Amino acid sequence: MKNLVLIFILVIFATACNLIKKDKPVVAEVFEYVLYEADLIEAIPHGLNKEDSLLFVQEYVNQWAYHHALLHRALINDLKLPEDEEKLEKHIQDYKESLVIYRYTQRLVGQKLDTNVQMEEIEAYYHQHPTEFTLKDDIVQVAFVKLYNSEKNIKQVRKLLQNYEPEDIVRLKSIAEDKAVNYFLEDDTWILFDDLVKEIPIQTYNKTLYLQNNKFIELQDSVFTYLLRINDFRVQDSYSPLSFEHNRIRSLIINKRKMELIERMQKDVFNEAQKDGDIIIHEQKTDNK
Fold first, then answer.
1. In whole angstroms, how far apart are CA 155 and each of 149, 150, 182, 219?
2. What angle do CA 152, 156, 158 make, to 5 degrees?
3. 3-state secondary structure at position 63
């Protein structure tokens, strides 16, 4: 099959857009299934160079053959009785209907969903659902600078981190941008303590005690010096701060709006059809014996 694909792709590029098609040329056959040249050409994305097109065709044909070989075997083993085939057709129809409804719904959601969320809404949600925001991990607000051991600014950075006045922060950022191997000076941003430990060689068996007992930390290995100031922290099982949950709450609010919008649209469609007389539900007779 690989040789067939190579020959096919060379023919495509040799004749460019002036392909003279025979009566439905065939690229591959698997049992009763046939992949025609025209279908393969249509599947090739526009803008690919010769090499990428060749790779695409090889993968496409192989996947097509793989899929239809499995499909053939599955149908033989699954459809042993006429009622099995009827059930499959019913499942296919149900899936098709669900897919059509889903695509229609998603298109309407894209047109009508309001994704603008005000800070007041986020704050209200946070205060109304406190139990949803219990921390599963320790988080910290820090200022951190990583320097080579040979760097002459270590003493200055240490002093600036310890003082940490507004003018010190400005100077810190200037030094970090110029000299640091890595740094994090967004001290109003919460990060996971475990993520911090991936960058700084902190070793502790009790993270809570470590955070409680260390305000300024300086560590050194054979290459780097790590200078860290812990400005604030929250430990596992305490309430998560609003700023840490901001994006998650925004997503929750938008998703709630989406569900409400979908439900409202579904009801509107049903009510409109019912009002126009397009829904007729016949009374069901029951035998009471």
1. 11, 11, 17, 13
2. 110
3. helix
SS3 (DSSP) at 150: coil
Lookup: tokens for 173:
């950022």
Residue ranges per structural domain of the chain: 2-78, 137-234
Q: Distance between CA atoms of 140 and 128, rounded to whole angstroms?
A: 24
pLDDT < 50 stretches in the chain: 1-7, 10-11, 13-22
Other CB atoms closer than 10 Å to residue 126's CB: what's the count?
20
pLDDT above 90 coverage of the chain, percent: 48
pTM reported for the whole predicted model: 0.65
C-beta separation of 27 from 37 below 8 A: yes
Measured over all CA atoms, what is the biggest interatomic distance in the chain, rounded to whole angstroms? 99
Sequence-distant (≥ 6) Cβ neighbours of residue 202 within 8 angstroms: 196, 210, 217, 219
Candidates 3.30.70, 3.30.1370, 3.40.720, 3.10.50; CATH matching 137-234: 3.10.50
Report the DSSP pairing between strands 182-184 and 139-148.
antiparallel
